[in-house]
Amino acid sequence: MTAGIHWAEPSSGAALQEPLVVLIHGTLDRMSGMARLARVVAETHVVLRFDRRGYGDSWEHPGPFDVAGNADDVVRLVGDRRVVLVGHSFGGNVALAAAASLGAQCAGVTTYETPVSWNEWWPHDSAGGRGIAAGPENAAENFMVALIGREAWERMPESKRTAWRREQLQHKPFACQQLILSVRCGRNRQPEYLGSLFELDRRCA
């Protein structure tokens, strides 16, 4: 479907409802992080999960690693099917951008813990902000320590910590530039494009 993107869309063989549900993971995660949610949703709908470019089994993707590139992957994976998009953290930015591209084909979009760091009121000491402030080599560690604490980070297997550091370095060229697309539901509950390109400085997450 999409070159360089590892994805999964298991079929139970049961008669499932439309639309397709796409689960989009956040920063320093992979599609396995959506496994528990996928099992619940899969009781009634077909669920598609994928490792975003530069993460997990999509590690070798050449990029770019911005919102627009990730959203293009979603659009290609969905094809011509009607879809609901669910995004966690940065995956929520991707979901909103993909919804804007899909238009009426997108039946719904929901986000959880998604950064809106272009707003003046967004805290600059968020986990993402601490990661960016630390520089590419230490971004992953500072990001995760802000989320789970130093003790939990040190208990992580070294292989996992190494993978996270590698992934964050992979995204270095994109570090503080994000294409932020916002959508809202119009009268017919169709996504409407509202966003533009924002260049974020080191204060933002």
What would you say this structure looks like, in words?
The chain is α/β, with parallel strands linked by helices. It contains seven helices and nine strands. The protein has helices at 35-41, 67-78, 90-102, 127-133, 136-148, 150-155, 158-170, and strands at residues 7-8, 17-24, 45-50, 83-88, 106-112, 177-180, 183-185, 191-193, 196-199. The strands form three sheets. Strands 1-3-2-4-5 form a five-stranded mixed beta sheet. A two-stranded antiparallel sheet has the order 6-9. Strand 2, helix 1 and strand 3 form a beta-alpha-beta unit. The longest helix has 13 residues, at 90-102. The radius of gyration is 17 Å and the shape is globular. Mean pLDDT is 76; it is low at 172-205.
